[in-house]
Amino acid sequence: MSRTILLIQLDSRDKSRSYAYFHSVDECLERVCKIYEEHLKRCTPCAHVITYDILQLFDFIDMLKDLTCLVFEEEANTYAPRNKDWIKNQISDKLRKEANKSGGTGETANAEKKRLVKER
User: Fold this and answer.
1) Are the beta carbons of 72 and 3 closer than 8 angstroms?
2) By CB neighbour count within 10 A (0-12 exposed, 13-18 middle, 19+ buried), where does 57 fall?
3) Which of 7, 12, 9, 42 is nearest to 22 (CA)?
4) Disulfide-capable partner of 99 in 55, 79, 107, 111 (CB 3.0 to 4.6 Å)?
């Protein structure tokens, strides 16, 4: 469990900058997914169910002005910066693990690539 700070800037406006502290990398990655899901809800307010695939999430991440994780490394007693590519790899690994937990059928590949946003 590595303490993690998420630094995000949605667009070029200084007001779109924010940060959040998490007790683990997983919590931080989950928040990145939630930020995208909130974006989807704003873009499609009439939809009852929204699904997206990992490539759409990655396009959103690439579109952000800045997205950085500062992950605490105990050995060095410092925070190490992690870029968008690292974040995307970690999210991909996280979704793959979640899909494997849900079963080893053909649906595993689908679960890895798609995610359901809460019904309204």
Assistant:
1) yes
2) buried
3) 7
4) 111
Handedness of CA 30, 32, 35, 37 (dihedral sign): negative
Tokens at 60, concatenated: 């959103």
Helices (H), 1-120: 25-43, 54-63, 84-101, 107-113
Q: Which helix (H) or strand (E) holds 79?
A: strand 78-82
Q: With a threshold of 0.90, does the pTM exceed it?
A: no
What does the block give as tokens for 92?
């991909």
Q: For residue 93, give every residue at least 6 positions away whose Cβ sits within 8 Å of its Cβ, in sequence order, or none.
A: none
Single-letter residue type at 53? D
| The two three-digit tokens of residue 26, written as one number | 């997983």
Using one digit for the tens of pLDDT, what is the confidence trace for 53-99?
Answer: 999 999 999 999 999 999 999 999 999 999 999 999 999 999 898 88
Tokens of 31: 């928040």
At residue 21, the 3 state secondary structure works out as: strand
- CA–CA dist 65, 80 (Å, integer): 20
